[in-house]
UniProtKB/TrEMBL annotation:
Its EC number is 5.4.3.8. It is found in: Cytoplasm. The modification N6-(pyridoxal phosphate)lysine is found at residue 268. One of its GO terms (biological process) is protoporphyrinogen IX biosynthetic process. Homodimer. This is Glutamate-1-semialdehyde 2,1-aminomutase. Gene3D superfamilies: Aspartate Aminotransferase, domain 1, Type I PLP-dependent aspartate aminotransferase-like (Major domain). InterPro entries: 4pyrrol_synth_GluAld_NH2Trfase, Aminotrans_3, Aminotrans_3_PPA_site, PyrdxlP-dep_Trfase, PyrdxlP-dep_Trfase_major, PyrdxlP-dep_Trfase_small. Its cofactor is pyridoxal 5'-phosphate.
Length: 433
């Protein structure tokens, strides 16, 4: 069985110095009721903890590592870059090169600004939308996560169109009130809201493939409706593709579903495992950003040469060999099909949802279209499944409301081993039914 002695000790010590012992809440394993392994290294599809346990990793740093951990080409490019200095706070050739690559993958991003995290990208995109339209209200969907800035850390009460209440102490009521939340995939609710007050709304921000309530694809007509109502009312449509960019397809959800947003946020893969994120859109809108326009946004480490180097190396590989997207998607498909078959074989109610190379196994008997559906899934089954897998070397996200990811290094052998462990877990669950 899994030995985590050193990790347990490390966690106890970490808790004395950092809230919950971590620097981002989900890492603490609260939602699975145990303690996290402390990681010492990672390579390809595998991560290793300080007790020398090895895992096949389906978290992949919460998405970025599509080429696998410590990809040799990315590592080599960093080894070359670092001796040239790690930050200048001045323009470099690398930034333009990355901007061009991003545009090649997502033509709607004619102009971009590089930032340091997905949170910063979405927060800044909201400011641009408000500055550009001269309106304060924004619309988001329940269960979509866009980072932890004030305007976006808001949940609705019950009811369709609800004016937001803060989701966390420290978010001012006045800020939250400008955030309207709607259920994901609810086309009628969107139409009704825009009929009533569309001309006062600055933007809709949406995960065009939701990943932060587990993997939830948009229903047919949902993204089209968002595009139509925003256009009709002079509001902007922001696609938060921090997770689904380079995962839903090579050109993100906007390519897969053929919808052109006004602004796009990228993060995770675009930084190749370094702190880098992006927001961008048409030149017309982005020209309003300082210093060419009045909407202020800045950053000491923005466009950092080391981070940009990792992003460039990653996107270069993906551009040079676009079959990587298909390979990774095929592996994900094989894994998801296998999981579905096993669930059926053991009569465990389960639905596997996948878009591109992101997926979630939901313990429920019907498709998950929104946060309420996701919340109704069987939490005990998830815990049993999660713990059996972790203790047998399969590392899934430690929460039922997350997507899992596959990399280029997850090949047939990894998928087979993963399914063998999954079979044991489904069997255990079936014995409790
Ligand atoms: C991860 C994520 C963010 C936040 O990015 P950070 O880099 O963690 O700040 C925002 N939006 C989506 C869709 C994400 O998945």
């Amino acid at each position: 069985m899994l030995q985590l002695g050193k990790s347990e000790k490390a966690f106890d010590e970490a808790k004395r110095y950092m809230p919950g012992g971590v620097n981002s809440p989900v890492r603490s394993y609260r939602s699975v009721g145990s303690n996290p392994p402390f990681i010492s290294s990672a390579s390809g599809s595998r991560i290793y903890d300080i007790d020398n346990n090895e895992y096949i990793d389906y978290v992949l740093s919460w998405g970025p590592m599509i080429l696998g951990h410590a990809n040799p080409e990315v590592v080599a490019s960093l080894q070359e870059a670092i001796p040239r200095g790690t930050s200048y706070g001045a323009p470099t050739l690398l930034e333009t090169e990355l901007a061009k690559k991003i545009q090649a993958f997502m033509p709607s991003m004619e102009m971009v600004r590089l930032v340091n995290s997905g949170t910063e990208a979405t927060m800044s995109a909201l400011r641009v939308a408000r500055g550009y339209t001269g309106r304060d209200r924004i619309v988001k969907f329940v269960g979509c996560y866009h980072g932890h800035s004030d305007s976006l850390l808001v949940k609705a009460g019950s009811g369709l169109a609800t004016f937001g209440v803060p989701d966390s102490p420290g978010v001012p009521k006045g800020v939250a009130e400008n955030t309207i939340t709607l259920p994901y995939n609810d086309i009628d609710a969107v139409k009704q809201l825009f009929d009533e007050m569309g001309d006062t709304i600055a933007c809709i921000i949406v995960e065009p493939v939701a990943g932060n309530m587990g993997c939830v694809p948009p229903v047919e007509g949902f993204l089209e409706t968002l595009r139509d109502v925003t256009k009709a009312h002079g509001a902007l449509l922001i696609f938060d593709e921090v997770m689904c960019g380079f995962r839903a397809s090579s050109g993100g959800a906007q390519k897969l579903y053929n919808i052109k947003p006004d602004l796009t946020c990228l993060g995770k893969i675009v930084g190749g495992g370094m702190p880098l994120a992006v927001f961008g859109g048409s030149s017309k809108i982005m020209s309003e950003v300082a210093p060419s326009g009045p909407i202020y946004q800045a950053g000491t480490l923005s466009g950092n040469p080391v981070a940009v180097t990792a992003g460039l190396a990653t996107l270069s590989m993906l551009q040079r060999d676009p079959t990587i997207f298909k390979q990774v998607e095929d592996s994900t498909k094989a894994l998801c099909n296998g999981l579905e078959e096993l669930a059926k074989k053991y009569n465990v109610p389960a639905v596997v949802q996948r878009v591109g190379s992101m997926f979630t196994l939901f313990f429920t008997d019907k498709p998950v279209h929104n946060f309420d559906d996701a919340s109704a899934c069987n939490a005990d089954h998830f815990k049993t499944f999660f713990h059996h897998n972790l203790s047998h070397g399969i590392y899934y996200a430690p929460s039922p409301f997350e997507s899992n990811f596959v990399s280029m290094c997850h090949k047939g052998a990894e998928i087979d081993k993963t399914l063998a462990v999954a079979e044991e877990a489904f069997k255990m669950i079936s014995e409790t039914l």
